[in-house]
Amino acid sequence: MILDILQFGDPVLRQQCTEVTEFDKELWRLLDDMYETMQKADGIGLAAPQVGVLKRVVVIDVDNGRIELVNPVITSMHGAQYEPEGCLSYSGKRGVVKRPKYVRGRAQNRFGKPVKFRGRELLARAFCHEIDHLNGILYEDKVLEWVEDEEDGVNE
Ligand code: NI
Q1: Could you give the dihedral angle defined by the CA atoms of residues 83, 18, 71 and 31, in that order, rounded to the nearest 10 degrees?
Q2: How far is the C-alpha of 117 from the C-alpha of 12, rounded, in Å?
Q3: Which residues, at least 6 apart from 55, have a Cβ–Cβ distance to it below 8 Å?
Q4: What DSSP character marks residue 90?
Q5: Where would a tag sit more exposed on the chain, N or C end, judged by fewer CB atoms within 10 A?
Q6: Residue 144 is inside which H or E element, if any?
Q7: Which residues fall within 8 angstroms of residue 151, CB to CB, at 6 or more apart?
Q8: Which of 68, 85, 130, 156 is labelled catalytic?
Q9: How much distance in Å is there from the Cα of 93 to the middle of ligand 1?
Q10: Which pTM does this prediction carry?
């Protein structure tokens, strides 16, 4: 099911999300709906608060397959990258954000099993952007410079 994506200014986007403790059908439906919604919106990442659910859940796909992270935590980061970034909650906007170049972390999968994740460049940026959403942090807080929107830019 396609969900509505909240837009900036909505106070829900500024809330802290809570840990997921029930790995049940409701969570699986949320993950499936979030992935479908992200794909329809042509995004590379989506966090649960963007669809009005204050749970620590994100989906990511940087054309490398579907990634689902529940209760994700970044455990290490290295390097730096400065790239224009977009967000599905800020349609039509794009700004340069400093992010680590390499990121590692741990999370749980949809069944509650512990998993590790790691990524570089675009994927590292997606991990950081989505996990920020879970803490009520929006990329506009970190934009160094707004840039012209590009048709082919990515949205998270
Ligand atoms: Ni976003």
Answers
A1: -80
A2: 27
A3: 17, 18, 19, 20, 27, 30, 48
A4: S
A5: N
A6: strand 143-146
A7: none
A8: 130
A9: 11
A10: 0.95
Cβ partners under 8 Å of residue 28, min gap 6: 110
CA distance 55 to 59: 12
Calculate the alpha carbon distances from 79 to 76, 124, 132, 138 in Å.
11, 11, 18, 21
| Main-chain dihedrals φ then ψ at residue 88, nearest 5 degrees | -65, -15
Mark whether 19 is an active-site residue.
no
Asked if 49 and 31 touch (Cβ cutoff 8 Å), the reply is: no
Q: What are the structural domains of the chain? A: 11-147 (3.90.45.10)
Are the C-beta atoms of residues 14 and 96 closer than 8 Å to each other? no
- In this predicted model, what pLDDT tens digit does every residue of 10-61 receive, in sequence order? 999 999 999 999 999 999 999 999 999 999 999 999 999 999 999 999 999 9
Write out the two tokens for 128: 């950081």
List the strands of the sheet with 143-146, edge to edge: 81-85, 95-99, 143-146
